[in-house]
Give the backbone structure.
Amino acid sequence: MAVMVLDKRKQPLMPCSEKRARLLLDHGRAVVYRTVPFVIRLKDRTAEGSAFQDVRVKLDPGSKTTGVAVVREPANKPDQPLFLAEITHRGRTIRNNLTKRRAQRRRRRSNRRYRPARFNNRRRRDGWLPPSLQHRVDTTVAWVDRLTRWLPVRALSQELVRFDTHQLHNPEVAGVAYQQGELFGYEVREYLLEKWGRQCAYCDTAGVPLQVEHIQPKSRGGSDRVSNLTIACGPCNHAKGNCPIQDFLAADPDRADRILSQAKAPLADAAAVNATRWALRSRLIALGFDVEVASGGRTKYNRARLGIPKAHCLDALCVGTVTRVRGWQQPVLCITAAGRGSYQRTRLNRHGFPRGYLTRRKQIHGFQTGDRVKAVVPHGKKAGTHRGRVAVRATGRFNIQTPDGVVQGLSHRHCTLIQRGDGYGYSFRKTQEDAGRVAA
C-alpha cells in the first residue's frame, strides 16, 4: 500500500512507497503522524515546488458497507489504486439503541411517575434523515474529508444508484403494472388469509381466530411490509413472541424454509441506499470538489471488462470513467464504525430496571476503550506481543481485540499506547480473498 505523506506544515504531498517511507523514518527525515492508516510527516520539506498528479477518491455507497478507493490517474497510463478501504456502518445498532431508549422512556412514564407524552409540535428540517441513515452519510463524508487532508485529492466520484424495489420483486413488471402492487384489489388481512390458506402458518390450525404475525420480528429489524407478514393462531403467536423464525421452528426446519420461501426478501438495504444517495452527493459537493456521478450499470460493466472480482472496495475502483487499472491486488483496510462509547452509566434488565452500574471514568490508567495498544506479555499462558483495539476495565485487566481474536485479562502494565481511539476499529485483509467470488 502507498504511504500518505505530509509536509512539515501538515499539507498533503504525493504518497510514497513503503520502502521509501521506511528510509525516511530511519534517516530521521520524517516522523510517524498516524499509524492506521499510516501517515508520515516530513521534517525538512514543504509543498511549494512539489510535483503533483491527479488523485481521485471513488465511493461505492452501500447500506451496510461503503467501498472507498483512492486512485492516481496519470495521463495515458493505467489508473493505479493508492488506498483501498471498506467502511462498515453501524446503522442497525443505532436503530436498536433508539428503540430501546423509547421503550425505557415509556416504562418510566407509566411505572415510576406520571408524565404525559410530549405533543408532537416539533418540525423536522428539510432533508431530515433518521439517525441510522444520517450516520451512513456522516461517516462517509468524514472519511472523505480525512483523505482530502492526507492526500492531494483533486476530484471525487460517486456511484449514484437507485434501486427499483418493485422490479426487485417482479423483474417482469412494466407500464401500468407499476400502479398495481401486491395488494392490488385486497385489504391486508384478506390478502394474508388467502395467501396462507386461512390456517396458522406454524401449526396448520384452521377454523380459529387468526392473528397477523411478523415473520421477522420488528424488534429484530423486521418491517410492516406485507412480505414480512403471515397468519398465526393465538397460542403460536404468543409462543413465538420476538423469537427469530429459525429458532422458533428449530425442530421443524422444513416448515421454516417453506415459510421463508413463500415470503419475500426485505428491501431495507435498498431503501437505505435510495434515501441517502442525494444527501451524500450534496454533502460531497459542499466539500468544494468536482463530483463525478455514475450508475451501477457502468460500474458492473467496468468490472466485467477489466476482469476484477466483486468486492465493495473494487466496485468503488470501477466507478465512473475507467480505461485501464493495474495494481489492484493490495491489502484492504477494513474500517468498522464502533462509536465512542455510551453516556449510559447503568445496565438495565429486561424490564427496564437498573441491575448494575458502570464506572464514571472512561479512562483507566491512561487508556480508554477504542485505543490501539501494543501489549508485550513476558510470561504465562498469554505470553507474546498483542496489538489491537483495547476494551478497558476498572480492575486494570484489559481485553484486546486482535486480528486472531480477543485476548482477555491483560494487565495495563504490559500495554503501550499506539493510537488514540477515534470511534473506528481497523483490520486488514487481502483482496485475493475475494478472487473466488464471481463478478456479477
Q: What stands out?
A: The chain has a mean pLDDT of 87. The radius of gyration is 26 Å. The chain is about 30% helix and 25% strand. The first strand starts at residue 3 and ends at 6.
